[in-house]
Amino acid sequence: QVQLVESGGGLVQPGDSVTLSCVVPEIISLNRYAIGWWRKAPGKERKGVSCIGPSETNRYYGDPAMGRFTIFRDNAKNTVYRQMKNLNPEDTATYYCSADLAHPCGGYYLDDPSPLDYWGKGTLVTVSS
Q1: 52-97 residue pLDDT tens
Q2: For range 118-122, the mean pLDDT
Q3: Nearest to 81 by CA among 92, 91, 73
Q4: For the chain, give me the number of helices (H) and strands (E)?
Q5: 93 - beta bridge partners?
Q6: Is the pLDDT of residue 120 over 90?
């Protein structure tokens, strides 16, 4: 079973920064697949927040990033990252990553999680003092 592996979550304080990692199996090439980050806050539906395509310049942010969030990747490590700065309690959520070959990174990719090929199990970020 092909599965992505997220890590980097934990309990952090308001104002802290955290970088989440999504390790992609070698069978999934970052030169072909679009990778997305999703968040599921308590009591809410999963929502797409950012994605990055095979081209490094193809990045899309579905959430009001306001400079606090950055998606980037390291092809040598087959890893995609989500850097989050100046965290607040509203950022508390389980963060998932996805990989898909057919859907390019963009608003459509982040609109509906159901057709995407591969997922991880998520990493929980709790922002609390």
Answers
A1: 999 888 999 987 766 899 999 999 999 999 999 999 999 999 999 9
A2: 97
A3: 73
A4: 1, 11
A5: 125
A6: yes
What integer pLDDT is reported at residue 2 of this predicted model? 87
Which residue type sits at 35? I
Supply 109's token pair: 């990719």
Cα gap 98→117, rounded to integer Å: 7
Q: What is the DSSP string of 41-90?
A: -TTS--EEEEEE-SSTT-EEE-S--TTSEEEEEEGGGTEEEEEE-S--GG
Per the DSSP assignment, residues forming a β-bridge with 60 are: 51
10: which strand partners? 125
Cα angle: 89, vertex 40, 22; to 5 degrees: 100
Average pLDDT over residues 34-58: 94
Quote the tokens at residue 64. Answer: 């009001």
Nearest of 10, 57, 18 to residue 34 by alpha carbon: 57
43: tokens are: 């009591």
